[in-house]
Design goal:
It holds the Pfam family PPR. With 472 residues, the chain is mainly alpha-helical. It contains 23 helices and three strands. Strands 1-2-3 form a three-stranded antiparallel beta sheet.
C-alpha cells in the first residue's frame, strides 16, 4: 500500500477560508423543476378515530433517511452528534396523521402550531411521503404564507426523512429567512445520498458566506466532512479543517464531536498521519469524547497501512479508556495480531475480550479469529473458533477454507466445500480465484473440485488424491 502524503497540521492555518472551491463538474445546487405538493387528498375516517398526540414540541431525535438506504442519520435538538443506526419503516394503518386531521376538520377544531409539530414528528418517524404531503397541504390551507420558521424547518426535515429531497429543497428555496437548522437539514440530507455529495458541499459553501453559529452550524460541518470523506475530496476537507480552527477553535472543536468527524475524514482519504495527530490531541484533552467510529476507523486504517503494532496499541488504549468494543475494531485488531506473530499471544487476549463482550459469534470476528490462529499455526484453535458460530456465512467458510489450504490440508478443504454445499452456501467465483492463486497444488485442487461435488463418491476422492500426488 502506497504511503499517503503527509501534510503538517500547522499548514491548515495557512489555507484561506474566504472562498471554497469545489473539484468536480459544475451543476446547480437544486433542480428548478419541483413536484407540486398536493393541496388536498381524500382520506377515509376509521370507525374509531385515533386520539391526538400530546402537545409537545419535537425535541427527540428524528431521522434523515433515503428510502433506498437501510441506515438513517439521527439529529437531536440538543446535540450535534450524528450517529448511524439501522431501522425499518413501521407504517401502520392506525394513528395516521391524516386520520387526525380528518377528525379535527369534522369537529371544526383548528390546530395550533404545537399540534402541527406533533403531527409532523409522526410523519418524520413514519417516513411516509403521502402523509407528509397531506399534513403540509393542511398547514398551508389553515395558516397560509409565510409559515413560521420552526414549522418550515420541521416540514423540510419531514420531507427529507421520507426521501423527498425535491420538496425539501423547494421549501428551502422559498424560505424568506433561514437559520442554521435550515442549512443543516438540507446539507445532511444531501450528504446521505450516494450522488449528493457535490450538492452538499456546494450548499455548505453557500452557507459559509452568511453569518451562522450555534449547534446546528457545527452539525452542518460534520455533514460536510462526511461528504468530503465519501467523495474523497481532500482539498475541500482541508479547507473545512482550517475553518474549524479559525472560527470554532481546535480545543472546543475536539470537545464537540468535530474531532471524530476529522479523524474519520482523514482516515477515509488515506491521510493517516494527520488523522493520528488529531486523534492524539483528542486523547490528551478530551478522551471521553472519542466516539466508537473514530476508534474503529483509526485501528482499521493503521491495519490497512501495515502499521500493525500501532493498531494493537490503539486497541489496548481503547479498552483502557472504557469504550465498548465492536465487531469492526475486534476484527481489525485480530488481523493485526495475525501479522505481528508472537505465537498468537495478542490475538488470544483479544479473543478473550470478544468473549467478554459477547461478540465471539459475529461473522467477521469469527473469520478474523480463524485467520489469526491459522497464521500462527494453531489449527485446533481455529477450528474451535469456527465451530462457535451456529450459522457461518460465506466469510467464515472462506476463512476456514484458507486455513486448511494454507497448511496443505486439501482433503479437509474438500470437506469444508461439501459442508458449504450442505449448508446452502455457494462459494463465489472470487473465492475460487483467490484460492487458485495461493499455490500450484491448490490450483489442481480447485480444478477437481467441480467434479468432486458433481460426483461425490469415494472413488472420486481417491482419484483426486492420486492426481495431486502424481502432479507434485
Amino acid at each position: 500500500m502506497a504511503e499517503p502524503a503527509t501534510i503538517p497540521l500547522e499548514s491548515h492555518l495557512r489555507l484561506t477560508t474566504r472562498q471554497f472551491r469545489l473539484f468536480g463538474p459544475t451543476s446547480s445546487i437544486l433542480s428548478k423543476s419541483h413536484r407540486k405538493i398536493p393541496r388536498a387528498l381524500s382520506v377515509t375516517l376509521q370507525s374509531k378515530p385515533p386520539d391526538l398526540k400530546s402537545k409537545q414540541k419535537s425535541s427527540v431525535p428524528v431521522s434523515l433517511r433515503h428510502p433506498n438506504q437501510h441506515s438513517r442519520l439521527e439529529i437531536s435538538d440538543d446535540s450535534t452528534e450524528a450517529t448511524v443506526s439501522s431501522s425499518s419503516s413501521s407504517n401502520g394503518s392506525n394513528n395516521l396523521p391524516s386520520h387526525v386531521l380528518r377528525l379535527m376538520d369534522a369537529l371544526h377544531m383548528p390546530l395550533d402550531e404545537e399540534q402541527y409539530l406533533s403531527l409532523i414528528k409522526e410523519c418524520t418517524n413514519m417516513r411516509d411521503a403521502a402523509q407528509a404531503a397531506i399534513v403540509h397541504a393542511h398547514i398551508l390551507s389553515s395558516h397560509g404564507d409565510p409559515l413560521p420558521l420552526l414549522l418550515v424547518n420541521r416540514l423540510m426535515l419531514m420531507y427529507a426523512a421520507s426521501g423527498d429531497i425535491e420538496n425539501a429543497g423547494k421549501l428551502f428555496d422559498e424560505m424568506p429567512a433561514k437559520d442554521s437548522l435550515s442549512w443543516a437539514i438540507l446539507i445532511s440530507a444531501y450528504s446521505e445520498l450516494p450522488d449528493g455529495h457535490y450538492k452538499a458541499l456546494k450548499l455548505f459553501a453557500k452557507m459559509f458566506s452568511q453569518p451562522n453559529e450555534g449547534e446546528y452550524f457545527l452539525h452542518a460541518i460534520v455533514s460536510a466532512l462526511r461528504s468530503c470523506a465519501r467523495s474523497r475530496n481532500l482539498g475541500f476537507g482541508l479547507q473545512i479543517h482550517a475553518l474549524i480552527i479559525k472560527q470554532v477553535g481546535l480545543p472546543e472543536a475536539l470537545a464537540r464531536n468535530l474531532g471524530n468527524a476529522l479523524v474519520q475524514f482523514y482516515c477515509r482519504v488515506d491521510c493517516l498521519d494527520i488523522a493520528l495527530q488529531v486523534f492524539d490531541e483528542m486523547k490528551r484533552f478530551h478522551l471521553e469524547t472519542i466516539g466508537l467510529s473514530a476508534w474503529s476507523g483509526t485501528i482499521t486504517s493503521c491495519n490497512q497501512d501495515g502499521r500493525f503494532e500501532e493498531a494493537i496499541l490503539l486497541f489496548i488504549q481503547m479498552a483502557l479508556s472504557g469504550k465498548r468494543r465492536d465487531s469492526k475494531s475486534l476484527s481489525s485488531a485480530l488481523t493485526a495480531s495475525a501479522k505481528v506473530g508472537n505465537h498468537g499471544f495478542p490475538g488470544k487476549q483479544i479473543h478473550a475480550d470478544a468473549i467478554k463482550h459477547g461478540l465471539v459469534s459475529e461473522p467477521y470476528v469469527v473469520a478474523s479469529l480463524v485467520h489469526m490462529y491459522s497464521k500462527q499455526g494453531l489449527l485446533t484453535e481455529a477450528m474451535r473458533s469456527f465451530e462457535a458460530i451456529e450459522r457461518p456465512d460465506v466469510v467464515c467458510w472462506n476463512a476456514m477454507l484458507v486455513c486448511y489450504t494454507r497448511h496443505g490440508l486439501f482433503e479437509e478443504a474438500v470437506k469444508v466445500l461439501y459442508r458449504m454445499k450442505a449448508a446452502g452456501v455457494q462459494p463465489t467465483e472470487n473465492m475460487i480465484n483467490e484460492k487458485k492463486e495461493h499455490s500450484q497444488l491448490l490450483a489442481v485442487f480447485v480444478s477437481t473440485y467441480s467434479s468432486c461435488i458433481r460426483f461425490p463418491s469415494s472413488t472420486n476422492g481417491l482419484l483426486w488424491q492420486s492426481n495431486t500426488k502424481k502432479s507434485y
